[in-house]
UniProtKB/TrEMBL annotation:
UniProt superkingdom: Eukaryota
GO molecular function, one term: GTPase activity
Identification of the protein by name: Tr-type G domain-containing protein
SUPFAM superfamilies named in the record: EF-Tu/eEF-1alpha/eIF2-gamma C-terminal domain (SSF50465), P-loop containing nucleoside triphosphate hydrolases (SSF52540), Translation proteins (SSF50447)
Residues spanning the signal sequence: none
Keywords: GTP-binding, Nucleotide-binding
Organism: Perca flavescens (American yellow perch)
GTP-binding found in the keyword field: yes
Family affiliation: Belongs to the TRAFAC class translation factor GTPase superfamily. Classic translation factor GTPase family. EF-Tu/EF-1A subfamily.
Length: 609
């Protein structure tokens, strides 16, 4: 494990490393446990430091970062025989923590409010965990001890600290949901690994595990993914894996799982790069998993995929696959190669090799708190080596956005991005995508557009499904499919949005963006055509003007005016822009829109709806 990370919590060696100086030089946002202050006691008084009777402060007492005001992590020195009033107070506090973590909270037992690892005796720890069980029962949650650790300092009695995961699915939600985009070069073992994780059976070394993931005949024949497919891996409230090995259908997995990881399996081959970019920009993944083959190392599109994830600011972790084919020296060479790339000035990442369960829990906590931490796993889909560490990581990784951010998005007007369009027998037209803001219910009346002429059509939501199971209410940030009944499919296309009737959407042919040209063989100038990706919008645009310069070269920055060539699009100021054309690539963000005439409902829309 990297030295900067292991300072905060030792790596499986039975004691915590670090000193009193650790807390002062660690950014609270990067800590192993960024800890919120008490929910119910919000005053400015500093907490009193409570020392155990046998405790003798010494110079090598390890620390965690001090508590922060908000978050889902709670420090508790001990929970021994609380009074009824204290018990009620603790239950209220637990509800607050769960709300902050959108259904998940982590309790550090044996830790002072200021982050000092004091530890508890065997008896006190047992009693504290029993009290925590009772608290969890009261609020309807489940608890699982992630790890216990002896604290090493001058004390006559051995003392322990414990880290406990508490999970409760919010009452208005079926399960906690995280989306993980799977990136990597062609033939690096992405689909095979997802097949092993989601089906529960190891691969035979010839690609049997990936057959269930393919959507087209040519994918089965070539063994290469060319489309975007979705796979689910569930965890129940005790942290046990729920997948197709015990459940026959996706509905069964959804019913028994309290946390769901949705994998977005993307294409690795360079000729399917536009599909991969579309998957990254439109499906809004929480994390990206970059799969690297141990025997080939960084090859093909690996660097490009890493660069795409970083440009779109998607937190990334790395899985080195096929370790059963290589010697240990080859695997270590691949790890060193990755570490060199991650530490380069462009990346500025802190690699963290995960070698045991303790590392996996630390990696999950660190990864969610700091975008610079990059966990590295070494796994095999044939022998099953270290797959359990990957599962521990997925089980303990918390949601990125907090409850406040989601509440703010839910209070905005409804906006649903259309990513997929289907025609289902006896159901009619169905659209798949992500709800960007607001709340969507069955029976809601929305408008969809823009059409080629910049108009919107009225429609009514029939039914909603998430992960193939029925859902009545869809909230901001969730992906789902919506049935639109007999709505004319020819009026729909990818890149459209479905918005509230009250919204006044800005539709534009032309927009300005501040861009950085990442690579271009010659010069980038007026009249150049590129494929632009903005969220779920993917369309060719012409460069109408480069402000302040005649032309752009690799690495240069400028404000550029783009014009779509096919149809107008719905855009927002501040949205990330990614464009490409052959070897030309660039990133940036929308700075100004030039909207066409204000939204007018089409005359015939009542008949079409």
């Amino acid at each position: 494990m990297d030295a900067r990370v292991s300072e905060l919590f030792g790596s499986g060696n039975g004691h915590c490393s670090g000193s009193q100086g650790v807390a002062s030089n660690v950014n609270p946002g990067n800590g192993y446990g960024v800890v919120p202050k008490k929910a119910c006691v919000k005053n400015n008084k500093k907490p009193k430091t409570r020392f155990a009777r046998n405790f003798k402060p010494s110079n090598n007492t390890p620390y965690l970062p001090p508590e922060a005001e908000e978050g889902n992590i709670e420090y508790k020195l001990k929970l021994v025989n609380p009074t009824q009033y204290r018990f009620e107070h603790l239950a209220t506090q637990m509800k607050w923590r769960l709300q902050e973590g959108r259904g998940e909270a982590v309790y550090q037992i044996g830790v002072e409010d200021n982050g000092m690892l004091v530890g508890l005796s065997e008896e006190d720890m047992r009693t504290s965990l029993k009290t925590l069980h009772m608290l969890a029962e009261k609020v309807g949650a489940d608890i699982a001890v992630l790890r216990e650790r002896e604290v090493d300092y001058d004390s006559d009695v051995p003392r322990k600290i414990a880290e406990v995961l508490i999970r409760k699915v919010p009452d208005d939600q079926q399960f906690l949901d995280l989306r993980v985009a799977v990136l990597g070069n062609v033939d690096s073992g992405k689909s095979t690994m997802l097949g092993v994780l989601t089906q529960g059976e190891l691969d035979n070394g010839r690609g049997r595990a990936r057959l269930n993931l393919f959507r087209h005949l040519h994918e089965i024949q070539t063994g290469r993914t060319s489309s975007i497919s979705f796979e689910i891996l569930g965890f129940n409230s005790k942290g046990e894996v729920v997948n197709y090995s015990e459940s026959r259908t996706a509905e069964e997995i959804c019913e028994s799982a309290s946390k769901m990881i949705t994998f977005i399996d993307l294409a690795g081959h360079h000729k399917y790069l536009k599909t991969t970019i579309f998957g990254l920009t439109s499906y809004c993944p929480d994390f990206a998993m970059l799969v690297v083959s141990a025997n080939t190392g960084i090859a093909g599109t690996t660097r490009e995929h890493l660069g795409l994830a970083m440009a779109l600011k998607v937190p990334i972790f790395i899985v080195i696959s096929k370790v059963d084919l290589c010697t240990r020296a080859t695997v270590e060479r691949t790890v060193r190669q990755l570490e060199r790339v991650l530490k380069q000035p462009g990346c500025n990442k802190v690699p963290m090799v995960v070698s045991n369960t303790d590392d996996a829990v630390t990696a999950a906590q660190q990864f969610a708190q700091s975008p610079n931490i990059t966990p590295i796993f070494t796994v095999s889909s044939v022998s099953g080596e270290s797959l359990d560490l990957l599962k521990v990581f997925f089980n303990t990784i918390p949601p990125l956005s907090n409850s406040k951010e989601q509440e703010e998005l839910m209070q905005q007007l409804t906006e649903f991005q259309v990513d997929e369009i289907y025609t289902v027998p006896e159901v009619g037209t169905v659209v798949g995508g992500t709800l960007y803001s607001g709340i969507c219910r069955e029976g809601d009346h929305l408008v969809v557009g823009p059409t080629d002429s910049g108009q919107f059509h009225k429609l009514t939501i029939g039914s909603i499904q998430r992960n193939r199971s029925a859902c009545r209410v869809l909230k901001a940030g969730q992906a789902a499919t919506l049935a639109l009944g007999n709505f004319d499919r020819s009026l729909l296309r990818k890149g459209m949005v479905m918005v509230s009737l009250e919204m006044d959407p800005t539709i534009c042919w032309m927009f300005e963006a501040e861009i950085v040209l990442l690579f271009h063989a010659k010069t980038f100038h007026k009249g150049f055509q590129v494929t632009v990706h903005i969220g779920n919008v993917r369309q060719t645009a012409t460069v109408e003007a480069v402000y302040g310069k005649e032309e752009l070269r690799t690495g240069e920055k400028a404000v550029v005016l783009f014009k779509f060539i096919k149809h107008p699009e719905y855009l927002k100021v501040g949205a990330k822009v990614l464009f490409r054309e052959g070897v030309t690539k660039g990133i940036g963000h929308v700075t100004k829109l030039q909207p066409i005439a204000q939204y007018r409902p089409s005359q015939s829309e009542d008949d079409e709806a």
